[in-house]
Design goal:
Elements lengths: L22 E12 L25 E2 L1 E8 L24 E13 L10 E6 L8 E3 L2 E11 L6 H28 L4 E3 L1 H14 L2 E4 L2 E6 L5 E5 L4 H21 L3 E3 L1 H4 L6 H35 L4 H9 L1 E15 L9 E11 L14 E6 L13
Parallel strand pairs: 1-9, 1-10
Antiparallel strand pairs: 1-7, 2-14, 3-4, 4-13, 5-11, 5-14, 6-13, 7-13, 8-12, 10-11, 14-15
Length: 386
């Protein structure tokens, strides 16, 4: 027998950053709030709270593979008396809370980076129209990345900044090698600060954050959907600004100086000469970093501190989603289900990119999950027994 047991979404791991990759990685666990049915669809261009209008260029699945489950606990051939099936039309114990979990994997190419809304969608089957409603909050467990080369000006500058950090930390490593081999010659905070710089460089291409958004029921009553890309652009901009401010502070506080003990030696002392040469090289690396990355930092910060709508859209539109799990809680009112409904009722769902109203139905995909209704079979008559 097939069954619908509680689905425990897998936690998606974030991709690991490697030096030289032209990607801005991010992870998100989004909490989506439920709002009442909309009087105007967002695709008309209306700005409805945090649901922002985007032009639909193309429609299609965001992922190559979709799996859908539910936690109704109903099974094929089940019975409403032991809660293994629902009884359509019943007036008692008629409200059933059901979570639908949609998992997407395998980025489906261009459809995920076109400037459409990215949404998890439940297509309400005809048997349940008017009987199922979104409830409470929906959760999204996902990772997403932003291609730096998708972003005019800012993308190139971010790559310059990360490249500058890599060069600087390499030079700092050389300086620290000298410190290790010549203890007492140099006073420095390079070791501590280089670790911070490494973290900043990594977080410029990978970071975690939460985003609050809305789930909305489309006004025709045939779909329930959760917009999963809302707020991404603004949050990425804020995170970049925070990281660059921290980066500026770290660079300003770098210290690599000849120790007082060595500085007290004669200027002709080989030990002092070597130490001063190491300090000169280290400070030259910092100056070179300022030349390489300084202007790029100013350019990016000026852009992200009060980001324009265009930049927010660029950041959001360049987002590419990794494996994603969306759980949408609903309530089914069995009293509103025609009592003629029996057996298997399939609920189709997917994670889509495009204009919701024009999306094709999911009936041709594998993205479906069954809910079972009591067949209310009559006892077999003795004359029917062979």
């Amino acid at each position: 027998m097939r069954s619908n047991k509680k689905v425990d979404p897998d936690k998606m791991g974030f991709r690991k950053w490697k030096s030289g990759k032209q990607w801005l990685y991010a992870g998100a666990a989004l909490t989506i709030g439920v709002v009442a049915p909309l009087s105007v669809s967002y695709v008309t261009g209306a700005n409805l709270g945090t649901i922002r209008a985007y032009a639909a260029v193309a429609s299609g699945s965001l992922f190559n593979s979709i799996s859908v489950g539910n936690d109704s606990g109903t099974i094929d051939g089940g019975n409403s008396k032991n809660n293994t099936a629902y009884k359509a039309g019943t007036q008692t114990d008629n409200l059933k809370d059901v979570d639908f979990t949609i998992k997407g994997g395998g980025f489906a190419g261009a459809s995920a980076i076109i400037g459409d809304r990215k949404s998890a969608v439940i297509e309400i089957p005809s048997e349940l129209v008017g009987a199922i409603q979104a409830k409470g909050t929906a959760t999204v467990d996902t990772s997403y990345s932003v291609r730096l080369d998708e972003l005019p000006v800012v993308g190139a500058s971010l790559k310059t900044i990360v490249g500058g950090i890599n060069v600087l930390t390499g030079a700092m490593g050389t300086a620290l090698d000298y410190v290790t081999k010549n203890p007492g010659n140099i006073d420095t905070n390079f070791e501590e600060q280089s670790q911070i710089l490494g973290r900043i460089a990594q977080e410029l291409v990978q970071f975690d954050q939460k985003v609050d958004s809305n789930v909305s029921v489309v006004q025709d009553g045939n779909h329930i959907y959760a917009v999963i890309d809302d707020g991404i652009g603004s949050n990425i901009a804020a995170k970049i600004n925070s990281l660059l401010s921290e980066l500026n502070s770290v660079i300003a506080n770098l210290s690599f100086e000849v120790s007082p003990e060595v500085k007290a030696l004669s200027i002709f002392n080989p030990r002092r000469i070597a130490a001063e040469a190491a300090v000169t090289a280290a400070k030259a690396a910092i100056t070179a970093y300022d030349v390489t990355a300084g202007n790029a930092i100013k350019l990016v910060q000026n852009a992200v501190v009060s980001p324009s709508g265009t930049l927010i859209d660029q950041l959001a539109n360049a987002a590419v989603f990794g494996d994603t799990t969306v759980t949408i809680p609903t309530t089914i009112d069995l009293s509103k289900v025609d009592e003629k409904v029996k057996g298997e009722v399939n609920v189709h769902a997917g994670i889509q990119s495009g204009n919701l109203i024009n999306w094709p139905v999911f009936s041709g995909t594998d993205g479906k999950t069954p809910i079972y209704f009591d067949t209310q079979q009559k006892p077999t008559k003795p004359s029917d027994v062979t």
